[in-house]
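note to self: dont lose this again. the chain is below, predicted strucutre after it. 456 aa total, dont forget to put it in the shared folder this time
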Amino acid sequence: MNYRIYLTLSIYLLFLSCNTSTTSSKLESENRPPNIVCIFVDDLGFGDLSCQGATDMQTPHIDNFASESMSCTNFYANCTVCSPSRASLLTGRYPDLVGVPGVIRQIEQNNWGYLDPNAVLLPEVLKTKGYESALIGKWHLGLESPNTPNEKGFDLFRGFLGDMMEDYWNHRRGGINWMRHNEQEIDPVGHATDLFTDWSIEYLEDRKTDEDPFYLYLAYNAPHFPIQPPQEWLDKVLTREKGINHDRAKNVAFIEHLDHSIGRVLEKLESTGLVDNTLIVFTSDNGGALRFAQSNGDLRGGKQDHYEGGIKVPAFIKWKDRIKPGSRTDNLGLHMDLFNTFCDVAGVDIKHDVDGISLLPSLLGEDQITDDRVVYWVRREGGNRYGGQAYYAARYRDHKILQNTPYDSIEYYNIGVDQYETTSLSTADDPIYDTLRFELRQHIRKSGSIPWQRSE
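---
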């Protein structure tokens, strides 16, 4: 063979080989399920971000993330308090259908939920597609076996088992240390927000060259009370916001510190290149607590209420090159829908009962109807105000019925024309009201078969 022809042919074959290898590698990357990162904050009010209209705080990192994401403007917590929303996020079920109608607490006489040991949690189903799963931060779905994170599918748990910290630096609740690294009790030094951020950054650094997809559930305790920002963050707000109420200043500083921490996590996703194939969600477990100077914007009510201020939450979802940056959807979504959405993007075939729906078509800009269903809210609570009984809300399209204690009369609103719930409608001869009451009764009948207390 002529030398020049041989050389030319050799170069061509080498080029073809390299090009085929590159194409194969690219296809492998495209076919690999995306990583999933869910940043779940605690008691963040609907109006407590600068991108949500707050004028006295600066949250540049979350604001920037929102600008790169789809904003879900009609997104709801599954409950107006902590444990039930977390149960729905991780199971795709209404919380009372997995035994968590209220807050799980360490004192038995004030405990209003017990996660059904048979409930299937997200990390368990993601494992069928090769996902490694980590929970960093707040668990709040059980304090002992069989309801601990590692027993429910998480390969790594570094965080807090309990409901709330009475101090963000010593991490105790009623004198008990609930901080754990997997099953081992730990006593780390530092503000909980900083610790959870550092541990998340460490986890992402470890994952950057791993071929398997991962699910990171980063659940901050902040900005749940007690409102304890580091002093330098409070000083900055007091200097900048002249005349601000001191309680409000503490909350602003607390959220700005949280924003800084979330920015650090997002930057690590960028610097490692993980962002190129990672679905990232930011949302809150319920609305802000008004008595701690948190804000739900113009929405009525706050944490513990079934008014919009108690259950409507910020939600931003980013997936590079797939979800259009700066887009928005007004479609109805709830925490339980994230379970189905995550399974959808991971390619998981859900083979057990769930109540949520996948929001993936909405996220990809496709037509989707998500409000052609009756959705429910429940909370069971103690004390004289609630008496250990449950109170409810239900919605179909724009019509909504609600109570804010078990002893309240049912209120009825069309939030499509009255989003601030100023005027309760007449219920006489209203077929939608009658349907909502009937469907809610059927839901209560169904949930009545699910125990929410541990059997001895």
